[in-house]
Amino acid sequence: MPLESSGSGRAERTGNEGDRLAFLELLAMGPRGWRSRFPVAAGPHGWRSRFPVAADATVYVGGLDEKVSEPLLWELFLQAGPVVNTHMPKDRVTGQHQGYGFVEFLSEEDADYAIKIMNMIKLYGKPIRVNKASAHNKNLDVGANIFIGNLDPEIDEKLLYDTFSAFGVILQTPKIMRDPDTGNSKGYAFINFASFDASDAAIEAMNGQYLCNRPITVSYAFKKDSKGERHGSAAERLLAAQNPLSQAFRFPSVQDATVYVGGLDEKVSEPLLWELFLQAGPVVNTHMPKDRVTGQHQGYGFVEFLSEEDADYAIKIMNMIKLYGKPIRVNKASAHNKNLDVGANIFIGNLDPEIDEKLLYDTFSAFGVILQTPKIMRDPDTGNSKGYAFINFASFDASDAAIEAMNGQYLCNRPITVSYAFKKDSKGERHGSAAERLLAAQNPLSQADRPHQLFADAPPPPSVPTPVVTSLGPGVTPPGG
Q1: What residue numbers bound the domain in which 277 lies?
Q2: DSSP state of 403
Q3: What is the rounded CA–CA span in Å between residue 326 and residue 335?
Q4: What pLDDT is stored for residue 332 in this prediction?
Q5: Which of 74, 123, 147, 238 would staple 221 via disulfide (CB 3.0–4.6 Å)?
Q6: Rounded to whole angstroms, how far apart are CA atoms 211 and 151?
Q7: Where does residue 274 rank: exposed (0-12), middle (13-18), buried (19+ CB within 10 A)?
Q8: Parts of the chain with a pLDDT under 70
Q9: Among 405, 406, 368, residue whose Cα is nearest residue 389
């Protein structure tokens, strides 16, 4: 099907609608011959180095057949305009994509055109869904970007997220730099926090700490295209202080009831940590991140108290005491983003046993800021997944988009169900109600995420979404989120 250039520079298609669909179906029959026509591998790097990408220039593509590849997706969406990048999240075990992907264009105009001509066309006999995606929270990037060095090769993105999210909201999945051919870690990574409070706390607490048997280095990252200047400068902090979006992530001190505990001997357990810190006041929770291979903790943990006063007292009496002959470090940590919880909590059912928290985070963080690590419910004895999970978004725009895009999509060869979770201690009432949305609209903290969510061009209607009935088996009712 020929392409003609219009006065606006857009490629206009000739022929009727039937010709277009026939062409797309023909394209989907197989990748034979496409490499000689489109140098796909060179595409993303060439485009990305020369052109700035518009904020709303990314589309979500769902309902993809297992035979669809990234090169095929690239070529298909070239019909709408120049493609900057494609991404199809893959199953870590099988290497097979999950039935959806993202396509990034040079301009929002091209993304809109792709939605217009590609939505609901058939690819390998299956209709695909094409919707607008967000620009990964760019307006929230205040420069609180840290560098983490000397990483053990076994450390993955999930472990970094679990470790560093205790200090505050992380805007994107931690980025471990990897060899493009082998996928092996290069030994360093970057994390982008939503506030300098969080990045400062992470650097102070984690620099020099052991992670998977190596002492890591944590510092502010160098700025791109700068002559040795790092993030975290006074100028950046001044701009952040004037940015109302970044202020939403500075938590009131009354919430700071969690302490970080470092330098722990391998013999220290969570029950022992709990009993030890009871000397300072009532303990709400303890958490010690563990190595996925050995099951051994990483030499640090977190203790949450009922009040900030108890946390401060713990720091006063516990810092630098010796435990199994080793001095421990006790510092203040953040309070798990409680003020940002507006009720945008979703339930995900029918999960494949192989799905882990990282895969859920990678999949659902595209729709907006996630306040905590996705919570997969597991058997306390075996650690095996029970087949369902919960995710807490920072806004209803994000949760609405996730439900609309992902409900019924395949994840690791199973169609997942995505709906609003039941409220705790309620009689069958789900999150996402009109009352919660009204309260969220009046909460200045929750408003920080509104401009940055998926499908901002076509939000769901204001009515309460129809609940999705989740079937986990005979007589099983999903618990509240």
Answers
A1: 252-333
A2: H
A3: 27
A4: 76
A5: 147
A6: 7
A7: middle
A8: 1-55, 90-93, 133-141, 172, 226, 242-256, 291-293, 333-341, 425-427, 442-481
A9: 406
Co-location of 306 and 359 in the same domain: no
The H helix count followed by the E strand count for the chain is 13, 26
Confirm if 160 and 189 have CB atoms less than 8 A apart: yes
CB atoms within 10 A of CB 30: 11
Task: Read off the pTM.
Answer: 0.34
Burial class (CB in 10 A: 0-12, 13-18, 19+), 307: middle
3-state SS of 37-96? Answer: CCCHHHHHHHHHHHCCCCCCCEEEEECCCCCCCHHHHHHHHCCCCCEEEEECCECCCCCC
Beta bridge partners of 393: 370
Residue 67 and residue 393: Cα distance in Å, rounded?
A: 32
| CA 99 vs CA 89, 244, 402, 409: distances in Å | 8, 37, 15, 7
Beta partners for 224?
Answer: none
Q: What is the pLDDT of residue 419?
A: 94
From the centroid of its chain, how far is CA 319? 33
Domain end call among 314, 333, 352:
333
Distance CA 169, CA 150 (A): 23
Length of the chain: 481
CATH of the domain at 291: 3.30.70.330
Residue 255: is it exposed, middle or buried by C-beta count within 10 angstroms (0-12/13-18/19+)? Answer: middle
What phi and psi values does residue 216 have, to the nearest 5 degrees? -90, 155
88 and 127 in one domain? Answer: yes
Judge whether 340 and 372 are in contact, CB under 8 Å.
no
Q: What is the pLDDT of residue 227?
A: 74
Residues 6+ away with beta carbon under 8 Å from 239: 142, 143
Contact 150, 216 (CB under 8 A): yes
**CA distance linking residue 307 with residue 136, whole number of Å:** 34
Tokens of 420: 């609003």
What are the tokens at 26? 């023909």
Tens digit of each residue's pLDDT (9 = 90 or more) over 262-321: 889 999 998 899 889 988 988 877 878 776 567 788 788 888 887 888 888 999 999 889
Phi, psi of 90 (to 5 degrees): -120, 150
Read out DSSP for 321-355?
-EETTEE-EEEEE--TTGGG--S-EEEEES--TT-
User: Which pair of tokens denotes residue 234?
Assistant: 């006074």
- Collapsing DSSP to helix, strand or coil, 312 comes out as helix
- What is the total count of domains within the chain? 4
pLDDT of residue 357: 83
352, 414 in Cβ contact below 8 A? yes
Residue 364 lies in a domain: yes
Residue 263 forms beta bridges with which residues? none
